[in-house]
Amino acid sequence: MAQTLFASTAPTALFYDNVPGEIADHVEVAKRRGYDTIVVEDLKALRRELTLLSVGSRVYLDQHNPSVTNLAEIELPEVETDNGSNVGLALARGALPDLLPKGVDVEVHLLSLVDFEPGTNDDIETALRRRYVRSYLSKRELDDFAQTLPPYVADADAHGLFPAEIEVVIDEQEHEKYVREVRSAVLILSEWMGEDRSKMMACLGWPDRDAADWDHVHADLLENVNYDMLRRARAIRTIKRALLTIYKGRVSIENDVSWLKAPEEHLRNRSPWNMILSSDLGQLSDVAAIAAKAL
Hints:
The protein has 295 residues and is an alpha/beta fold. It is built from 14 helices and 7 strands. The strands form 2 sheets. It has a 5-stranded parallel beta sheet, sandwiched between helices. The protein has a two-stranded antiparallel ribbon with strand order 1-7.
């Protein structure tokens, strides 16, 4: 039986950058404008997140990454990146058209520490002209970046900015897959949070719900599929897989919690635990991206 899926109303600002520190200010701007923010450092994670984007989202691709010489390395089309100097451009032209959800208009922008001068790169000029990318942005020019993000507000539909919800029909097999992923994530949270329902609901995006509401919330999130919950479930599962790798397969809740509660320098010395409990999808995704380095 097919089911109607309603996507998260807030659009996403998805960043791909192998040096996240270079775009920390950009991420904060996107958060202040009301966007869900997701930062990924590797192309496998980027590929996964691209398939979940909704209308009104923005994708910001790091133009330079010397470690990526051909997209075929991660099972994408065999596209050269000019020894890593045109990674973002290669992605925009050779991969994103097939990875982005069909019928969902998503803006793609290139970010670089190297300023682009008109007339110096024919490939970039062609991509801009053909709308593979909307702009080539210097990371040093934060104001130029901010102009690509119209503020998102709760009643965006009334303002003509974004649709209030995006309706997609999924089949029973996809629904069952979603249920398995969410149930797995709930089980992981129950281990970490010691059955504290309030904390579990905060991790799943309901920070203000009473613990007594858990049965209703749990039933609802399994019945009504949405992209926001799917992202959260996958992030939680990624963190758990990474912890199994870090601790070499030794299952220990104590090890998990110890890692989660320790300050992490790549998260600006915040603990993954506090970021997960913030209910912010962007912060949860940041923790998953850091943890995924162990995989």
